[in-house]
Amino acid sequence: MRIMASATFPLPTRARPIVTLTVNPALDISTSTAQVIKDHKMRCGPSRIDPGGGGVNVARTIQSLGGDALAIYAAGGLTGATYRQLLEAENVPSVVVPIDGTTRESFTVDEGGSGEQFRFVLQGPEFSEAEWRSCLAALEAAIVPGGYVVASGSLPPGVPTNFYAQVARLAHQRGARSIIDTSGDALAAALAEGVYLVKPSLRELSELVGRELSTEQAEVDAAAELVARGSAQLVALTLGDQGAVLASAAGVIRLPVPHVQVQSAVGAGDAFLGAFVWRLSQGRDPEAAFRSAVCAGSATAAKPATEMCAIAEVEALEKLLPEATRY
Q: In which family does this protein belong, per the annotation (predicted)?
């Protein structure tokens, strides 16, 4: 299996480098219509296409904030070729792992009348064992001791459930810190291996600890439990408009989200993670990185489609955040 580095953009070099891995990227198509009506042909407004997917969006965020990250991703078919062109146009350094299948698409429709957003995410292409192993090989070649490895997004058909656990193991073996952002059995397997940072939603955290989390204290206790278990050194629980919680060996803190006019939730969680790891790579402490992450998620939610936030927007929102609540 050939692995292609971008011929246009050099791989980034930095003291604490960041590498992201996306095995199931998606070409994000966004548009709008006045009203979504069953069985009707709905005329749409202007459309926009972005290169999406967890790890790629993390790298795009870091790029937008003024940092560097190497994005490793699998791509194939005509959709994959378009995807690569779009990412290169954003000057994101990348390594492409070719696959026989066609890169998937996702489709987002904003309903003008109600302000609701409808998201349709297609299943990814079937991977052969050789293809997913090539993704791991590309990652292993790119890991730098002391750096960060961010593996994010869903797993396409054919990729084993323990894939992200293998990613975490590779990072540990190479002296790097692993950040995993996925869900279900793949997330549970990665946490059984042990990771540096994990970013579950409330539903995902509830599944991990095996109980309903119906109070603020229950949320705090569950996040702290993952740290106590050794599943993750940092647990960033994202709660949408209810803010976010950060648990570590130093304790648990909570931040609200700054108020913004939300345009699109697509990519907001990835922006949160991108800002978090970028600040960590700069030597910021986890609490300072967490503040930037909360603001980056909000700033991205205020953008259309899958457009990522800018550093000035993040810094402006940081000035509005109160001190964290400590537990």
A: Belongs to the carbohydrate kinase PfkB family.
